[in-house]
Amino acid sequence: MRVLAAFLLLLLTSCSVAGGPTSDRTTVTFRLWDEQVAEAYEESFAAFAKQHGDIDVVVQLVPWADYWTKLPTDIAAGTAADIFWTNTSNYGLYADSGHLLPITDGQQSGWTRSVVDLYTRGGKLWGVPQLWDSIALFYNEELVTKAGVDPATLVWNPSGTGDTFLPAARRLTVDKAGKSADQPDFNPTAIARYGFNAALDSQAVGGNFVGSNGGTWQNGDTFDYADQPKTVAAIQYVVDLINKHHVAPSAADTNTNGDKTLQLFTQGRLALFQSGPYNLKNVQEGAKFAWGLAPLLTGPAGRVSVVHGVAAVASAKTPHRDATEKVLSWIGSADGTRPIAAGGFAFPGVVAAEPDFTAYWQKQGVDVRPFLNAAHGTTFPAPIGPRVQAGATAALPILQQVFLGRQPVPAGLRQAQNAANKAIAE
User: Fold this and answer.
1) How many CB atoms lie under 10 A from the CB of residue 148?
2) Helix and strand totals (H; E) in the chain
3) Would you call 130 helix, strand, or coil by DSSP?
4) Domain segments of the chain: what residues?
5) What is the mean predicted confidence (pLDDT) over 352-364?
6) Which of 262, 259, 274, 255 shows the shortest CA–CA distance to 402?
7) Which of 91, 166, 202, 236 is deepest in the core (most CB within 10 A)?
């Protein structure tokens, strides 16, 4: 998840939920990267302590910028936390190498199925779902109303047949002279407001277009996007939104600033912002205009959303296996994840706690059902595999050139895929 935090190393005697440990107490360490959610866990573990007075849970906060360099070092040294957050791009490496405990908790039927599937590998579940993201369409109410656009009914198609999205995006894109992109005298070099946030963002943008065109991104643990005509067509469509139709910001701005389109949306300079619940609070705090949520665009294969989830995994080297399993069971319960949901931080991995998240946002005047409907509809998996992160890193500079328009889409995807799969095989 995208909320970064400052590094905080807490002494075990000062940050345990139930006070300082004694000889008959067990301390379980819990590591994550999100400062806001860490506060929710403190509340959760305070409730846990009332039921398990002999177990202290210590929350360790490591910022995203350091998380994935510190984690492998700590795992190799045997000093990793008893329980720690992971994502789909990284857990496979540790599961395959025997560094994680499989999850056998009987509450699995109450967990978000798509996240359970993401963390199931080799016939075993390796993580307790903690939170998840699907994708929906944020929209600026005034701008879509003025342009006569209904964001809930938009259809895209790489062939152009029945495509209502591109015409809408062109009407919503306006230059500094007030001319929209569907007018012949529109100036694409002086754009004041963009229609849509097309960018090199596989979670919020690319994966959803690929999925809704019936394409794939991976085959097992390797990438296959260059081999799939429907995937190539979807990426071509997204790249054309930027470089041909000029309805989205230049990749020169978005390749190096993942928050650029969020900033444009909250400034009123972007009409449609496709993103996840991880940006709800950012939009709520930053937007000074009326906004809402609509379902994803409908493609040839229907509405298809990327679903990504964060899970809590247990170190196979924990010296406190029984206590660790009790903590895992707690954070796999509705009561254990309710503080995350009730604080409006994220959709919880436990289905029974979802209403708390929905209720929080209802009080803010926001209907988050488009996210729920997306997660429970047809979904597109987040990247998985023990070396998928290495592959994605190798492909990134090539894909950036594709989105800049400096590399043809088919050739660029082929080059990126070759580089990615080579890195995976190393």
Assistant:
1) 9
2) 18, 16
3) strand
4) 12-134+307-381, 136-306+385-425
5) 97
6) 255
7) 91
Q: 12-134+307-381 belongs to which homologous superfamily?
A: Periplasmic binding protein-like II (3.40.190.10)
* pLDDT (tens digit per residue) in 68-86: 999 999 999 999 999 999 9
pLDDT at 107: 82
List, in order, residues 6 or more apart from 177 with CB less than 8 Å away: 185, 187, 190
DSSP secondary structure, 356-414, as one string: HHHHHHHHTT---HHHHHHHTSSEEEPP-STTHHHHHHHHHHHHHHHHTTSS-HHHHHH
Residue matched to tokens 């029945």: 162
- How far apart, in whole angstroms, are the C-alpha atoms of residue 152 and residue 119? 32
**What pLDDT does residue 108 have?**
87
Helices 334-342 and 321-331: crossing angle in degrees, nearest 10, is 50
CATH class of the domain at 136-306+385-425: alpha beta
12-134+307-381 and 136-306+385-425 share one fold = yes
Residue 61 in tokens: 């906060």
Indicate the residue type of 218.
Q
Stated length of the chain: 426
How crowded is residue 244: how many other Cβ atoms within 10 Å of its Cβ?
12
Q: Which residues of 179-214 are buried (b: 16+ CB within 10 A; e: fewer)?
A: bbbbeeebeeeebebbbbbbbbbbbbbbbbbbbbbb
User: What pLDDT, on the 0 to 100 scale, is given for residue 16?
Assistant: 37
Q: Is the pTM of this model over 0.85?
A: yes
Is the Cα torsion angle 241, 291, 261, 200 positive or negative in sign?
negative
